[in-house]
Amino acid sequence: MSLPAPLPSLLAAVTTPALVYDDARLRANAERIQSLGQRYGFTPLLAMKASYAGLGVLSDVPGLMPEVGSIGELRLAQTLFPGVPAHGFFVAIAEEEWEEIAQGVGHLSFNSLRQAAQFGPRAAAAGLAAAIRVNPLVQVSSHSDYDAGAKGCRFGVPLAELPPKLPDFIVGLHAHVLCENGAADLAQVVDVLLREGGLWLSQVQYLNLGGGHLMTAEDYEDECLGKVIADLKQAHPHLELFLEPGAAWFWESAQLVTTVRDIVRPSGIATAIIDCSFRAHLNDFLIGSLLADLPLTITGATYVSPADYAQLTDADRGRTYRIGGLSCATCDSKEYYQFAQPLQVGDHLVMENMGHYVDVTYSWFNGLPPPSIYRLTNTATLERDHPYHEFLQINLPFHRR
Ligand SMILES: Cc1ncc(COP(=O)(O)O)c(C=O)c1O
């Protein structure tokens, strides 16, 4: 899928730090996911946790069904998708949450047999289609931190631990072990489900294959997805299929625009300090830097590993930078990025593919305002920002309000 790159002059006009969402790319992603669902015969759900900022555009797209993971997301879904019953997966439901959940969702996956026993009979009485989450113990996740298929992961019941006969109130199975994966990885999961899970698949009406399907990436294998779904339907024609990608809806949909505030050179290591923080605003990428498995793409720059940095000539070092965040955390930096020219204070530094799991995870750590949200059409429109009173609201005790 190729769309024209946003005009740099539009990006240059925003107040930084800013997450700039490309309206056209969000709509193109949605169209693609929905058309794959129609072509191959599954219902795509929108896992809301991946981005709330991008929902400003996606909530206008007809036919989207939200998947929620908390009461907060359920309420947001009811505001943005009024009248559409959500699909829910809650890690653990509290008794006092039950009534609200039961009224808001149409489908609900339980994470444990204990929670299923507690709420399942009431779910059935309320007309909900309840499922149990299973762990097929297939490890194909692209990031070790997000591997829900690992043995002992707290999510889902290993197939071998399911009772041979599921309770009557369970009418679905739910399996989520992918993260930014392709269809060949899904094929491995489905293969195990078919070989080891047939006993239970024949007892339920639907199968939810979770999220992590990177259907909007350039190299996603459509035909492989088609074959996986066809194999499933052949083995269990009675099953209704749901897939609940999150990141895929927002893939390549936003750029994070920051400004270089200072350039420091402690012990000769050129460091561009930007008006944003990895620790406060891009925490995933910080974990990724420790585990070295989450890439960060900066426009016009190439990544240089610490080993390669040590070998650089003085001239190349002059245009190669550690990127430093604004917070007081010592670890708040990413090494190293080489630019065509040396950076100057005031330059914009733009990070790519920031539409998913950025706006939903950032914090006010160190009092640093998170990036504002812009929507890019033929102009860049401010959709929301994080003014100081938000920080005050979060942090003031009741007696000082
Ligand atoms: C149960 C469930 N469904 C869907 C998703 C969305 O996954 P992704 O954003 O990787 O597509 C997640 C992500 O954590 C999840 O836990």
Reconstruct the topology from this structure:
Layout: H1 8-12, E1 18-22, H2 23-40, E2 43-47, H3 55-58, E3 65-68, H4 71-80, E4 86-89, H5 98-104, E5 105-110, H6 113-125, E6 129-135, E7 157-158, E8 170-174, H7 183-196, H8 198-201, E9 206-208, H9 222-235, E10 240-243, H10 247-250, E11 254-264, E12 271-274, H11 278-281, H12 283-291, E13 301-303, H13 306-310, H14 314-317, E14 320-324, E15 333-339, E16 348-351, E17 372-376, E18 380-384, H15 388-395
Parallel strand pairs: 1-17, 2-3, 2-10, 3-4, 4-5, 5-6, 6-7, 6-8, 8-9, 9-10, 12-14
Antiparallel strand pairs: 1-11, 11-12, 11-16, 13-15, 14-15, 17-18
Helix pairs in contact: 7-9
The structure holds pyridoxal-5'-phosphate (PLP).
CATH fold assignment of the largest domain: TIM Barrel
Secondary-structure arrangement, i.e. CATH architecture of the largest domain: Alpha-Beta Barrel
Ligand identities: pyridoxal-5'-phosphate
Number of folding domains?
A: 2
User: What is the CATH top level name of the largest domain?
Assistant: Alpha Beta
Supply the number of helical segments.
15
User: For this entry, what is the oligomeric state of its chains?
Assistant: single chain
Q: Rough shape?
A: globular
**Portion in beta strands:** 15-25%
**How many E strands?**
18
Main sheet, how many strands, which sense, barrel?
Answer: 9 strands, mixed
Structural class, please?
alpha/beta
Low-confidence stretches: none
Query: What gyration radius follows from the Cα positions, in whole Å?
Result: 23 Å
Give the rounded overall mean pLDDT: 95
Distance between the termini: 50 Å
Helix content: 25-40%
User: What's the CATH H-level homologous superfamily of the largest domain?
Assistant: Alanine racemase
